[in-house]
Amino acid sequence: MMVDRQEFLQKLITKTDSKIVMLVMDGIGDTVVNGKTPLQAAKTPNLDKVATESDLGQTIPVLPGVTPGSGPGHLGLFGYDPIKFQIGRGILEALGIDVEVGEKDVVARGNFATIDGDIVVDRRAGRPATEISKKIVEKLQESIKEIDGVKVQFYPGKEHRFVVKLTGEGLDDRIEDADPQKEGLPIKWAHATHPEAEKTAEIFTKLMKEIREVLKDEPKINFALIRGFSKYPAIPKFPEVYKMRAAAIAVYPMYKGLAKLVGMDILNVDGETPEDEFETLKKHWDEYDFFYVHIKKTDSYGEDGNFDAKTHVIEMVDKALPKLLELNPDVLVVTGDHSTPVAISGHSWHPVPFMIKSAYTRAGLSKAFDEFECARGSVGTIYAVDLMSLLMANARKLEKFGA
Amino acid sequence: MMVDRQEFLQKLITKTDSKIVMLVMDGIGDTVVNGKTPLQAAKTPNLDKVATESDLGQTIPVLPGVTPGSGPGHLGLFGYDPIKFQIGRGILEALGIDVEVGEKDVVARGNFATIDGDIVVDRRAGRPATEISKKIVEKLQESIKEIDGVKVQFYPGKEHRFVVKLTGEGLDDRIEDADPQKEGLPIKWAHATHPEAEKTAEIFTKLMKEIREVLKDEPKINFALIRGFSKYPAIPKFPEVYKMRAAAIAVYPMYKGLAKLVGMDILNVDGETPEDEFETLKKHWDEYDFFYVHIKKTDSYGEDGNFDAKTHVIEMVDKALPKLLELNPDVLVVTGDHSTPVAISGHSWHPVPFMIKSAYTRAGLSKAFDEFECARGSVGTIYAVDLMSLLMANARKLEKFGA
């Protein structure tokens, strides 16, 4: 986006004692169902009170009309141009489950699958329990340790998911997903999109054939689809760019991975509820200047098309909110990384509502926190990549530009 | 603008069966006269009902404060960066009247004019009837066939307008308009803005002098101003970029020219009213995925400063709208290519209202289709060049960006 935001801000950013909390309710934005959006339907006295004290607006995650994955959605929120920094799913999964990724490595996400002959009949092998899947991963690791002089390591994930890491010289991640995307289609092997990646693609294809051989007598988990090939990306570190000690509070691996990628510390959460996450926030309050707090379930229920459940999660966040508010952050932003409308059962391109509470807001215009109030809020519609500079300004961490 | 939108979208665009209708009411945006804009004053029950089901917003045609011609205005709507793709008026006029333009040609738009000595006293020679003007064009073609080894061809247009085409080696279109722009000023000959165009400028100056000689005994039409010098531009083809079969429904030559330039098919309209245009839409409904429908008269009456007539055209569109709506397009956008305020009697820089109707809108916020509702709509203010990606998103023709 024209000017690299972080480069431009760099010379204005100043270190202060103020604290910023970014509360990301994943997929929060929605559309109207029976007259209301989930944010409108939910009883949210605490969020609405914050709205009366805040600057409201809405973000365009990438570009108008573009539906972001969680990676680009979050990078934008953290102030990284999501078009400039394109991050593979493999690296996010790997970082999320604490796999160390080095400069010479290529990681990818694996999906256990069921094949019948050459046809992929179940892309998730009936969603095996994590414990079963973990044993299969161990079996693979015992049989497959190296291909063409390149070291192969497997790491179990949740259910059908795992991570595979190759370590060796000259590896390249410019490879198409080895996944037909739909069931009933033939196996798709790994294909390089650039000539320099042909050797790596060949190794992944050999790997998939070896996996098929090792698992050939398994009734369901007899194959793996491999995708999201990625090297560790060169990305500026959030704490250095913004001169803040930064921590992430998240339950799901991919979001921990995203935070780790930009150099945040990952804080352990004892439990899974919003209240548990706010408890972690309280516990580490003195140790950091910036906290990213991620609520996953708003997105999950949006993906499920479950209006009532999404609404209920919003109410749970609202109910727990006083625990966060009593810490009295200098700046609080409540937003999402993208919209996940119930009516779409998936991510969407719709603008994402946000509100920023600080001592310096142009408060007074808005009465509640929802999509419509935010569309007509005091900030207007901005790119997500510009949110960080608004937070930094409200935290008085940005000096004047020019004389 | 930052990222080239079409390049970025290319890898996300997917072919589907959904249909998009882009209804362009030329110059629709306006300012308030006696308390209302023409859109507010017009009785538009159909447009207003669509507004209740739509996402509303407003577009910036080029950059804030920049008043676009019809070319940049439309290119933005079609998703082409109007600053990157600058198209001469000559090529638009030529394509609009079915002149074949080859790679070695330079075309320009001619205006018959009246001179008195060296002074241009009427830039349109009293707006002659098309039939009279056509005879003058024939007379010129008989007398002038070649200059300095370059072939010269004339094509009649409406009233005082005509097109001239040069065909030869090494022609260049970087030439200033040979038009003093105001009456009472001396003749302005053709001047190159780049050294490579000097030969071509010289030929055009010779041509203007020969025209003066041939017409010296005519009482009114005794000269021609020549402008909009242009070669055929290299421009990506709309149907290839967006993977849609695309057609244009327009009555006026320049808009047909614009559509042809980007590779749309031009559909014949039997008549000139909005209803006639919607009838054409209906007739060809099954043959295309994208329809650009152009209403000219909103702009014409804006240019004339005629509030009531502009209002009446809006009402005519509204009355005919059910014929369009009954086709049930997956996505309908109603907008303009720029504003033409009655109070300005010309194009302006004001943002242009739009509404997008689909099954996926954040509908419910807006009650009517006008400048004020659009300024406070659910989409906010965006660049015109970003409208296409919103339409593509609503038509579910864009895949998710990133994991």
From TrEMBL, chains A, B:
GO annotation terms (biological process): glycolytic process
Alphabetized GO MF terms: metal ion binding; phosphoglycerate mutase activity
Gene3D superfamilies: Alkaline Phosphatase, subunit A, Metalloenzyme domain
Higher taxonomy: Bacteria, Thermotogati, Thermotogota, Thermotogae, Petrotogales
Pathway assigned in UniProt: Carbohydrate degradation; glycolysis; pyruvate from D-glyceraldehyde 3-phosphate: step 3/5
Pfam families in UniProt: Metalloenzyme (PF01676), PhosphMutase (PF10143)
Name under which the protein is recorded: Probable 2,3-bisphosphoglycerate-independent phosphoglycerate mutase
Domain Metalloenzyme: 19-393
Heme is among the record's keywords: no
Function: Catalyzes the interconversion of 2-phosphoglycerate and 3-phosphoglycerate.
Natural source organism: Marinitoga hydrogenitolerans (strain DSM 16785 / JCM 12826 / AT1271)
Reactions catalysed, as given in the entry: (2R)-2-phosphoglycerate = (2R)-3-phosphoglycerate
Isomerase is among the record's keywords: yes
